[in-house]
Amino acid sequence: MKVVICGAAGQLGSELVIRFKEEGHEVLAYDLDLDITDFDLIMSKVPELKPDLLINSAAHVNADEAELKPEISYRVNFTGTQNLALAAQKVGCPLVFISSDYVFDGEKGTPYTEFDEPNPLGVYGKAKLAAERYIVSVLNQYYIFRTQWIFGKYSKRDFVKSILKNAKEKGELRVVTDETGSPTSACDLAQIIYLVSTSGKFGTYHATNSGVCSRFEFAKEILDIAGWSEILVQPILYKELNLPCPRPKYSPLENMNLRLQGFPSPRPYGEPLKEYISWLLREGIV
To answer: Which entry of 102, 112, 124, 250 is annotated as an active-site residue?
Structure first.
């Protein structure tokens, strides 16, 4: 199978390239060298490549910047995805799109399933939801994966790295207690995406590692695993950070559709977290 991956240099895109290549597929990896927001470019280039599967892991993920400069988020997260959906339609291949827990408002009080109604609070979530709905409106063959709190080797800066670097530099931390989700390994997520997107079981999936924690609890766990449990972590509320983007307070994603379709249950997030932190410390990255 020929797989075209956009956003291939990102933390998830890098893992997807590795995963599909390991399984013997032909992978054509593009990043900034293929501008997904350029309609004419996408509509000429993608059909020329003749992919059997088109993956969009390119995204503008800075939710706070999205509130201040909405057009940037909409251009990449919606228009870029719109272009790829139209290209996939022209080619006749399935499209993979990576969405987010930010499509929900966090008010449900229990983990969200694929059957809950979205209600995004900010621009980033609105752009992702608009992209989801556009894909569904023009394609019959698609895989939409909602995920959250991704960490992994190819990230420039994720929550795990930030906690360890700030702990090392500052000696203490301030972390919010009123934001709750499911930490997700980019490597494990890539495996889920691989299994589902080669199955022919089209649809929308929640894809995270299992387990739920607050940002505060996650930070404490990161420090414990690193052997830095003596670092003081001060609990604060999200509003104290004065950030532009409203976050869903409680938005763990339940992987219901993975179960319904008979896919393996994802690992508890603590397992890949230990592997990742061991690698960060061994490589001297933090």
So the answer is: 124
